[in-house]
């Protein structure tokens, strides 16, 4: 910073500042020496220039000085004038003080002359002031009852209690105790104390159950304008969901000016009766100032009022705190606690009943013109219709009725039925209401306990254990958080019992025994954590579970035989049905309710969150619901698999196969019913993830029994039949595994290497080996074949049904896996009605594989059966001599019989099996027929040209029959039978031409087949003696 930076130089003369900066520092030192400058000028060559530079600098300095003088001249003048004024005031003050000293001296002389008289006058004035004060107090006290009544009418309960307490203390003062005129006032104040107590108690009661003016209860979606009955009439606050504060109603009478006329909006809103437009500007200006709630606007400022002003708690919590403070000021905490205990259960019962009634009215009004029964039937069928899509076949048969008859529950009670949804919605509504009520009870309970502990600081603080009704609760009249929680859960348990149509007497007895045990002995924390047997929740109160002060009130309200039995809740008016199967829809709301309660409980009551409603429901499910379900569904499974129609194929013979059940896939009724029942059981598992393990085991048990029944039906159809015995042979099984047709089977699990053998199947000669094996079984007897087409249809339908069940079981496994993933803290539960077995338990995947293997066995039997049928009909060909005398017009009888069998069986099997499976069943006929036709020549002795034509006619007819089957490749069939016709047409060649053909096509047939061409006798064909030798040279045999 420069030396001249602070000079007041105007902006238009900024150059002066720069010129000043150029002045040498030697001119600005404190002790200026002019000699060096004079010497410098005298010795300078340009003396005139140096002198002119000095003059210029002098002009600059003078100009700067002028600017400074002009700037500070007025300030200097004002400073001088102010100093002059100060001197004048000091002079006048000195003169005044002198005069005051003279006056005080004169007054001292006058007062000292009459000191005694003045003292008497002062004493008389003090006495008169005291008398006037007492008279004013008496007059004010006489007006106290009127003022209190006015404050009560204005709902200023805290202000009324303040006035009452202050007046009562004033009446106890020494000067007012002897005033006889105040006896009536004392009597009125005593009466008003009781009136105030019941007013405060009613307001507290209303806000405890969210029916007060400042309650935080917001109507749910289904609670449109619900009116919850209570002992006092109160209105819900308007627009509680808004975030902006609202003005409370106008205060009547002498109200405080300022922020006390507005209501706090910490919780997001409050009710109001109106507003004054003149106060809007004031509210905007004071919006950042903490405001008193409306009910404290007439109160006298004190510590509590200031606390409420600064508190950020929700509005309803502030109101509850105010009412508890009023009770403490009235010294009525114990009486209020006792009354709350007495009215807790009836009020909760009434709220639950009214909620159910309101919900029923809302549901009925939401569907005008639809009756309850019609609505129930419509919604209840959604589950079954969703599963079967109104399965109505062309032949008029329907499975909906049969499935509904076998299921132990009606469609309304199914896992996704109307009753389940209605029960869940109802319980969600009730438990949400109970949670909000319990939140208020936690606030009040903590306040009462803290107030009672402050009033009795010497009381020892005991550790909260299973017995919460200790001596500490006497100060609150027996009312504690544990007490309210127990009653609330007890009423919820009674509602659940009504929904489930269960009787809680046994559970209540167990609870009472355990409550008495806990009252006599406090368990350690480890034992409490490990205790799992029995119920740890007193659903019904006994004298051992109620504190001494609340015992009398509880006995009056509950222990009388006539009053102990409460009426029901009316849940039947909203639920289409009631019963034990609603436990599935009850479980999840109760689990969520327990989690909410656990998060709300104070730390010292945290142990209570582990027991109660959830423990009761879990024990009920384990001890009652699961065994009942197992028995019911076991009966349903037994009925499904033992009915005459269970394994009776059901399809229209003219209908085409469809892969969709909803469009008519002909699944056997027994297996479709089992699938339906298994899905229902897994639906229960999804609703109750904790018990999914037991329910999946039930499904496994049902699937095992069904598999045994399917196996028995399969065995009955193929017993003692040659095809059944063949597929059981190890060599045949290996050949069928390598057969290219195995790719058409339901799964490649049993044929893992099939894909590796498809390409070289012809080289390996798998089909040839199978044909050779079947040819060795000749002669085949008719008794060893399945001649009954109904059994073949059963095998086809059973195979398709088993494949459907296997696919469904795999989906079951996915559903069960998802249910187990959502399970939290799963504990092993005993398996009911499980048969003892030394084998390890199967999982659903193993059952799916078993069902699929049995389906594959059915297909294998059908394929081998058709191949054996082909061999059975063609074995006549080897014993016949084809010496025909005319050209063939019709195929042989055995060919006609075979074609008829193929056509008829394809017609009856087609509706029951997929086209790829039909290809597998009938696809083996062509290879066996062609191989058998060629092998038959080896056993023929004579054949003429007409015989060759007859065999060609037979192959053509068989080719046409097989090509008519849509699923079979007609080109492959034609190629194979062309091969047969080519073979027999070689008989028409002379031997020389035949040998030439063999030379060119040595690999078209094998050597033995070529040798058989020379072996058979053909009329008109001469065979040289060396023909066989020459053929041996070409094809070594």
From TrEMBL:
GO biological-process terms attached to the record: exocytosis; Golgi to plasma membrane transport; protein targeting to membrane; protein transport; vesicle docking involved in exocytosis; vesicle tethering involved in exocytosis
One Pfam family hit: Sec8_N
Domain Exocyst complex component Sec8 N-terminal intervals: 16-150
Keywords: Exocytosis, Protein transport, Transport
KW Metal-binding (keyword) present: no
Any one GO cellular component localisation term in the record: exocyst
Cited InterPro entries: Sec8/EXOC4 (IPR039682), Sec8_exocyst_N (IPR007191)
Keyword Protein transport attributed: yes
Region annotation (Disordered) ranges: 243-262
Functional note: Component of the exocyst complex involved in the docking of exocytic vesicles with fusion sites on the plasma membrane.
Protein family: Belongs to the SEC8 family.
Stored PANTHER family: EXOCYST COMPLEX COMPONENT 4 (PTHR14146)
The name this protein goes by in its record: Exocyst complex component Sec8
The organism's taxonomic lineage, starting at the top: Eukaryota, Viridiplantae, Streptophyta, Embryophyta, Tracheophyta
């Amino acid at each position: 910073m420069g030396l001249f930076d602070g000079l007041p130089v105007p902006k238009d003369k900024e150059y002066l500042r720069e010129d000043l900066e150029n002045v040498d520092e030697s001119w600005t030192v404190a002790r200026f020496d002019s000699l060096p400058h004079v010497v410098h000028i005298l010795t300078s060559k340009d003396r005139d220039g140096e002198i002119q530079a000095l003059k210029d600098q002098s002009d600059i300095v003078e100009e700067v000085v002028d600017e400074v003088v002009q700037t500070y001249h007025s300030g200097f003048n004002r400073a001088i004038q102010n100093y002059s004024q100060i001197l004048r005031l000091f002079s006048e003050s000195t003169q005044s003080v002198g005069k005051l000293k003279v006056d005080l001296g004169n007054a001292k002389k006058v007062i000292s002359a009459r000191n005694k008289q003045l003292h008497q006058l002062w004493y008389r004035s003090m006495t008169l002031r005291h008398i006037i004060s007492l008279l004013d107090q008496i007059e004010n006290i006489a007006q106290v009852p009127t003022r209190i009544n006015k404050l009560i009418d204005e709902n200023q309960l805290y202000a009324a209690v303040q006035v009452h307490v202050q007046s009562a203390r004033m009446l106890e003062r020494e000067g007012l105790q002897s005033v006889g005129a105040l006896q009536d006032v004392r009597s009125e104040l005593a009466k008003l104390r009781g009136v105030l107590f019941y007013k405060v108690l009613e307001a507290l009661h209303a806000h405890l159950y969210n029916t007060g003016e400042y309650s935080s209860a917001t109507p749910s979606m289904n609670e449109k304008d619900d009116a919850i009955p209570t002992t006092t009439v109160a209105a819900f606050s308007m627009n509680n969901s808004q975030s902006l504060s609202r003005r409370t109603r106008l205060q009547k009478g002498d109200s405080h000016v300022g922020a006390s006329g507005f209501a706090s909006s910490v919780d997001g809103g409050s009710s109001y009766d109106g507003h004054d437009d003149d106060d809007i500007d004031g509210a905007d200006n004071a919006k950042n100032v903490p405001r008193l709630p409306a009910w404290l606007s007439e109160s006298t400022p004190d510590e509590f009022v200031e606390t409420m002003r600064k508190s950020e708690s929700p509005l309803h919590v502030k109101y509850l705190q105010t009412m508890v403070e009023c009770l403490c000021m009235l010294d009525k905490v114990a009486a209020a606690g006792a009354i709350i205990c007495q009215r807790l259960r009836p009020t909760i019962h009434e709220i639950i009943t009214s909620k159910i009634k309101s919900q029923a009215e809302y549901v009925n009004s939401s569907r005008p013109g639809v009756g309850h029964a019609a609505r129930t039937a419509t919604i209840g069928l959604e589950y079954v219709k969703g599963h079967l899509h109104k399965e109505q076949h062309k032949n008029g048969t329907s499975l909906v009725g049969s499935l509904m008859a076998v299921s132990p529950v009606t469609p309304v009670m199914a896992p996704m039925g109307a009753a389940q949804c209605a029960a869940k919605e109802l319980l969600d509504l009730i438990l949400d209401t109970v949670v909000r009520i319990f939140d208020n009870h936690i606030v009040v309970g903590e306040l009462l306990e803290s107030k009672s502990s402050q009033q009795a600081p010497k009381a020892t603080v005991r550790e909260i254990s299973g017995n919460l009704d200790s001596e500490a609760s006497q100060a609150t009249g027996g009312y504690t958080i544990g007490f309210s929680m127990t009653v609330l859960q007890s009423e919820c348990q009674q509602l659940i019992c009504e929904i489930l149509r269960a009787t809680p007497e046994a559970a209540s007895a167990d609870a009472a025994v355990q409550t008495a045990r806990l009252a006599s002995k406090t368990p350690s924390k480890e034992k409490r954590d490990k205790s799992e047997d029995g119920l740890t929740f007193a659903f019904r109160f006994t004298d051992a579970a109620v504190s001494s002060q609340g015992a009398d009130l509880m006995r009056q309200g509950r222990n009388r035989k006539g009053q102990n039995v409460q009426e029901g809740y009316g849940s039947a008016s909203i639920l289409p049905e009631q019963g034990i199967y609603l436990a599935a829809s009850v479980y999840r709301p109760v689990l969520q309710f327990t989690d909410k309660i656990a998060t709300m409980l104070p730390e010292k009551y945290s142990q209570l969150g582990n027991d109660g409603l959830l423990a009761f429901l879990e024990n009920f499910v384990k001890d009652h619901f699961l065994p009942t379900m197992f028995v019911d569904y076991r009966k349903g499974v037994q009925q499904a698999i033992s009915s005459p129609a269970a394994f009776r194929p059901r399809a229209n013979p003219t209908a085409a196969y469809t892969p969709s059940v909803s469009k008519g896939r002909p699944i056997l009724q027994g297996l479709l019913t089992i699938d339906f029942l298994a899905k229902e059981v897994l639906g229960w598992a999804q609703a109750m993830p904790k018990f999914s393990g037991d329910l999946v085991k039930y499904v496994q048990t049902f699937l095992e029994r069904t598999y045994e029944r399917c196996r028995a039906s399969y065995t009955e159809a193929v017993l003692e039949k040659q095809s059944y015995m063949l597929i059981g042979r190890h060599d045949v099984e290996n050949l069928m595994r390598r057969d290219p047709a195995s790719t058409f089977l339901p799964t490649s699990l049993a044929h893992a290497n099939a894909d590796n053998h498809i390409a070289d199947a012809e080289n390996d000669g798998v089909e040839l080996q199978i044909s050779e094996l079947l040819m060795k079984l000749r002669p085949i007897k008719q008794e060893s074949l399945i001649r009954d087409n109904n059994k073949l249809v059963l095998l086809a339908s059973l195979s398709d049904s088993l494949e459907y069940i296997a696919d469904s079981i795999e989906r079951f496994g996915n559903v069960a896996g998802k249910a187990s993933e959502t399970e939290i803290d799963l504990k092993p539960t005993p398996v009911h009605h499980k048969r003892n077995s030394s084998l390890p338990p199967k999982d659903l995947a193993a059952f799916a594989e078993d069902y699929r293997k049995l389906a594959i066995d059915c297909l294998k039997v059908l394929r081998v059966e058709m191949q054996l049928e082909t061999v059975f009909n063609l074995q006549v060909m080897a014993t016949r001599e084809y010496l025909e005398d005319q050209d063939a017009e019709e195929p042989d009888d055995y060919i006609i019989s075979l074609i008829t069998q193929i056509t008829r069986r394809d017609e009856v099997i087609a509706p029951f099996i997929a086209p790829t499976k039909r290809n597998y069943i009938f696809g083996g006929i062509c290879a066996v027929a062609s191989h058998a036709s060629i092998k038959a020549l080896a056993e023929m002795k004579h054949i003429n040209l007409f015989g060759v034509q007859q065999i060609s006619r037979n192959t053509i007819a068989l080719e046409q029959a097989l090509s008519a089957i849509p699923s079979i490749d007609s080109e492959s069939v034609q190629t194979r039978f062309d091969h047969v016709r080519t073979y027999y047409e070689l008989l028409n060649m002379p031997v020389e031409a035949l040998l030439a053909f063999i030379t060119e096509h040595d690999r078209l047939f094998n050597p033995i087949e070529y040798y058989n061409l020379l072996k058979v006798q053909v009329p008109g064909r001469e065979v040289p003696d060396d023909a066989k030798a020459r053929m041996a040279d070409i094809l070594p045999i």
